Amino acid sequence: MPAQLLRPFARLSPLMLAASLALGGASAAQAQSLSQLFDAARGFDATYLAARSQYDANLAQAAQARAGLLPEVGLGAGANWTRRDSSVSQLDGTSNSQNVTLSASQPLYRPANKLAYDQAQRSIDIAQAQLTQAEQDLILRTSQAYFDVLAAQDTLTFVQAQKKAVAEQLAAAKRNFEVGTATVTDAREAQASYDLVIAQELAAENDLRVKKLTLDQLVGRSSVVPQPLATPVNLPPLQPAEPQAWLDRAGANHPSVLQAQRNLEIAQLETQRAEAGHKPTLDLVGQYQVSRSPSSTQGISGNVRTNNATVGLQFNLPLFAGYAIQNRVKQTLALEEKARVDLESARRGVDLATRSAFLGVVSGQSQVKALEAAEASSQSALEANQLGYQVGVRINIDVLNAQSQLYQTKRDLAQARYNVLLGTLRLKQASGELTPSDLQPIDALLTR
After folding, report:
1. What is the CATH number of domain 3-69+110-148+222-279+322-443?
2. Which one, of 98, 64, 59, lies nearest residue 82 by Cα?
3. Domain extent listing, the chain
4. Is residue 232 reached through a cis peptide bond, with omega within 30 degrees of 0 on the bond before it?
5. Residues 226, 241, 348, CA angle at the centre, nearest 5°?
6. Residue whose C-alpha is closest to residue 219's, from 436, 37, 46
7. What class does CATH assign to 71-109+280-317?
8. Residue 434 near residue 139 (C-beta atoms within 8 A)
9. What's the CA gap between 401 and 406, in Å, rounded?
10. DSSP reduced 3-state for 235
């Protein structure tokens, strides 16, 4: 076979590297890291912003419970006009009266109000845990969209490189057929492979457009260009490497467990509030009233102004409420037991999610190593098929299949690396430790 016909069979690694650099480096000046895009998403994503507003609303709602421990002050005013018609003409006439009343009360002993305030304080922890979960969810959604774009770019790059190699193989098969050194089968097989890779290229281009639109919509920017992984790719080892260490981390501070724990405490306090329905209440009350009305004393005509000030204690003791309090206590005890079961369920769920995420990362790392070995083997197999085709012991379809296997292996390897990085983030989320700072180690793996 002429030397120029062997060019499509050159080693493909430099070709892949050049294509990747061309795709990723074309807009290097505009490329953004994962942390930068997460910061943009945090200020734009509707789901996270809604969670943030809900957090502020929950804080305001919790602060309302403090009102039950503070004094209440009210101001009232009134004016009346009276017309009198009597059988005694001397008593006929009209009169006007006005009054202004300032009243205040201070709870001295209201156990239900104090328990409601304690519940509100625990609800603040729940609101914070819910916001933390929303932030962790945003981290994962941003990372997923980020790596989806990179994976789609890799797929398109590999398909385009495969298209170029198959096109050259097709041209070589046609020339060899024309000079009689190859059969028409070789040409037709090469044409079929070329048609197939064209279809794959169209699908890859559309998939990349969709993935880019998803990332753009998430971060609120247009034509976002994520930074690709730097080559050679060296994934960091998983630390700690033991599952029990991750399980130990997923303790009471996990957002799900913390919410369940606070819900149990709130349910216990609700039972105490229900029981407090039997207890008395004591308030300090005061009132100051200014009134102006016609004199009711004989011999004194005109309007009389009166100032009245009163201070006292108001005591109230429930005696019987139709068994409402007893039934309310039964209800709260049942809800307390439910909250206790929910707490145990949350702990079990965190344990299962952490173990599953840990095994996913370990499996992913093993898969990356296996695909790296498969990539080297596929490269060697391609070269062997190229040599066999050159000496006549292999046919054209063998070379095409070896090319397809190599490109498929490269795509799978790139995706496996992204899955490991995403799996590490999911593991940290499962253990309740995921924070925006966990994106920095991933940024360190990206091209500068």
Report:
1. 1.20.1600.10
2. 98
3. 3-69+110-148+222-279+322-443, 71-109+280-317
4. yes
5. 90
6. 37
7. mainly beta
8. yes
9. 9
10. coil
> In the 8-state DSSP scheme, what is residue 4?
G
Q: How many CB atoms lie within 10 A of CB 308?
A: 11
CB atoms within 10 A of CB 183: 14
| Tens place of pLDDT per residue across the chain (448 aa) | 333 333 333 444 433 433 443 444 444 447 899 999 999 999 999 999 999 999 999 999 999 999 999 999 999 999 988 777 666 555 566 778 899 999 999 999 999 999 999 999 999 999 999 999 999 999 999 999 999 999 999 999 999 988 888 888 788 788 878 877 777 887 888 888 889 989 999 999 999 999 999 999 999 998 899 999 998 888 989 988 888 888 888 776 799 999 999 999 999 999 999 999 999 999 999 999 999 877 655 555 567 788 999 999 999 999 988 899 999 999 999 999 999 999 999 999 999 999 999 999 999 999 999 999 999 999 999 889 888 877 877 777 788 888 888 999 999 999 999 999 999 999 999 999 999 999 999 999 998 7
Distances (CA, A) of 75 to 100, 269, 282, 289: 7, 34, 22, 10
